[in-house]
Amino acid sequence: MGPLTHSERPIRWGVIGAGGVAHGFATGLGSLPDARIVAVTSRRPSSARAFATRFGPMQVHHGVDELVRDPLVDVVYVATPNHRHVHDTLSSLRHDKAVLCEKPFTLDAEQTHAVVDEARRRGVFCMEAMWMRFTPAIGRAAQLIASGAIGEVRTLHADFSVRAPLDPASRLFDPAMGGGALLDLGVYPLSLADMLLGPATVAGARVVMGPTRVDEHVAVVTTHGDDRLAVSTASLRAVGHNDAVVGGTGGSLRICGPICRPTRLVWSTCPDEPVTRADDHPTPGRRGRRHAALVRRIRARARVERVPLRGNGYEGEALEVMRCLRAGLAESPGMPLDATLRTMEVLDAVRAHTRT
Ligand SMILES: NC(=O)c1ccc[n+]([C@@H]2O[C@H](COP(=O)([O-])OP(=O)(O)OC[C@H]3O[C@@H](n4cnc5c(N)ncnc54)[C@H](OP(=O)(O)O)[C@@H]3O)[C@@H](O)[C@H]2O)c1
User: Fold this and answer.
1) Is 87 in the pocket of ligand 1 (CB under 6 A)?
2) Is the CB of 215 under 6 A from ligand 1?
3) Interior CA angle at 310 toward 307 and 314, to 5°?
4) Catalytic residue positions, numbered
5) Whole-angstrom Cα distance, residue 179 to residue 236?
6) What is the C-alpha separation between 236 and 173, in angstroms, rounded?
7) 297-317 pLDDT, tens per residue?
8) What domains sit in the chain, N to C, each tagged with a CATH number?
9) How far apart are CA 202 and CA 34, in angstroms?
């Protein structure tokens, strides 16, 4: 696809799937002067009409086939449940529509390969809607790490947990719709691990299955090259810390959760001496006082940076798509298709490790 040469005209979005995230995304797009939603379709016409009433005026199409043929649409935002992504994305690409597809990109690596091959063969822009990567806080964290602020990165502990009510009718708990903690939530820490530590190999993984036969809790250990290690956890049914903590040879960086849309970083460099929780469990005597002083020194060095979201957090990924379209790029350097592929392969490997 060539660049959108009329740089002064808005980029025209079509939306497939008028559910929860589509409403959030459309609200974000509403604050961008060079974006317009011109079309929507959804499984139920009533959902699409309600969406159009709220965010329109726009065309309400009867089905995906009609929307992807709409000549006014430059780029399609796929916001249907996980099991629909491969169909809706391929349909869009086959009509030479650029695509931003919600995470998880597809259900498995085989489907992702099919989409990536199609996009590359046609030279049409395609990107996973991993909005986390385009938040200012993640950008700042990457910048701090690249500047050596915490030395050489060696570890990552990242969690993304929500406590959703058990509802067999919800897509989250429906195996046929690609439900489960790994695909819906685990994809965030695993994508972050790929971004900050490099390509992963799954060293081990465990899941706890729930009554609807989706994984409700998941823990994954990945290695990244010879000297880096990540622990990623996610849960659909438990409360978690939702932070990501990057450990380096010279300090640590806490990306305060929720990791999909963080707004605060806490980072500290530390002396060579080991850190203990001396002030939480004071040891009497001189040794205890020395430890307490050390911990106070380290905490005094901790810097807290507030890094606000732009709008509701969806603007970053939308801006990236529009920047790429105007520049004539077929892939985003910030969320490359190869990284999406690697993460899908990790998700497959986790399932291979945990299959009973
Ligand atoms: N980036 C983020 O922050 C974020 C947050 C949440 C979810 N997500 C991702 O976004 C996607 C949608 O999630 P959501 O929470 O918005 O889901 P949702 O509220 O259930 O909405 C899904 C939409 O897809 C339609 N749909 C439902 N089942 C369908 C089916 N079997 N076939 C075709 N269409 C169907 C629904 O249509 P009708 O209403 O017309 O029936 C609805 O408009 C998922 O892939 C999810 O992982 C991303």
Assistant:
1) no
2) no
3) 120
4) 103
5) 10
6) 9
7) 666 678 999 999 999 999 999
8) 11-131+313-343 (3.40.50.720), 136-308 (3.30.360.10)
9) 41
Element (H, E) at 262: none
Query: How far is 1 from 67, CA to CA, in rounded Å?
Result: 19
Mutate to test the pocket of ligand 1, among 102, 111, 183, 261 (most ligand atoms within 8 A of CB): 102
- For residue 313, give the ligand 1 atom closest to its CA: 3
**Torsional sign, CA 115, 91, 4, 102:** negative
Find out whether the beta carbon of 206 lies less than 6 Å from any atom of ligand 1.
no
Q: What's the pLDDT at 249?
A: 94
Is the CB of residue 315 below 6 angstroms from any atom belonging to ligand 1?
A: no
Q: How many CB atoms lie within 10 A of CB 324?
A: 23
| Mean local confidence (pLDDT), 23-51 | 97
Question: CA 66, 26, 91 angle in degrees (round to 5)?
Answer: 30
pLDDT at 24 over 70: yes
List of residues 6+ apart from 44 with CB closer than 8 A = none
DSSP letters, 327-351, are HT-SS-SSS-HHHHHHHHHHHHHHH
